[in-house]
Amino acid sequence: MCQFNKISLRLVNEKTYEYNPTIIHTQTDVVKFIDDQEDIKHHTEERVYCIAMNTKNEIISFSQIAQGNINNCNFEVKGLFKTILLCNASKFILIHNHPSGDSTPSERDYQVTEKIKEASKIMGIEFLDHIVIAQNGYTSCYSIKGGE
User: Fold this and answer.
1) Residue 93 in contact with residue 51, Cβ under 8 Å?
2) What is the phi/psi pair of residue 50, to 5°?
3) Are 51 and 45 contacting, i.e. CB atoms less than 8 angstroms apart?
């Protein structure tokens, strides 16, 4: 006789933030939001974050997806989508930092962006942007539609 488990998935709210719900219209809005929540441009290791939004671009969750080392951060795309699906988001933005201080995306950043674009199309969840933040500013690997 084989066994299987009955399971349930639950979203755990770690912290509640207050914000102006109309702020996510441009990349600058995203960077300002991140700066208000986390000072990621000064982290000494790469970290990947996800902002999940509803159809009105209102933020419904902000979460750290992965933490790496000084020059890279590996994460599984399925873990990213697990977070997005659990909060019932229809759109999302990916953000990560470059501890080097240079926000220029690496070839790997572009490859990951393309992989996530493909997966988001299959999942039917809109991938709005992938922004790299560093001390010298920020750079998009994929622009927000209608944004800057």
Assistant:
1) yes
2) -130, 130
3) no
**For 57, left (φ over 0), alpha (ψ -120 to 50), or beta?**
left
Indicate the residue type of 35: D
Distance in Å from the first CA to the final CA of the chain: 59
- Over residues 2-38, the pLDDT tens digits come to 887 777 777 777 777 776 665 688 888 889 888 888 8
Q: What is the largest CA-CA distance in the chain?
A: 61
* Residues 81 and 133 sit within 8 Å (Cβ to Cβ): no
101: phi then psi, degrees, rounded to nearest 5: 95, -10
Those residues of the chain that have pLDDT short of 70 are 19-23, 143-148
Q: Which candidate, 63, 53, 64, 66, places its Cα nearest to that of 126?
A: 53
45 CB-near residues (< 8 Å, 6+ apart): 67, 68, 69, 70, 73, 99
- Picking from 145, 34, 136, 37, the residue whose alpha carbon sits closest to that of residue 94 is 34
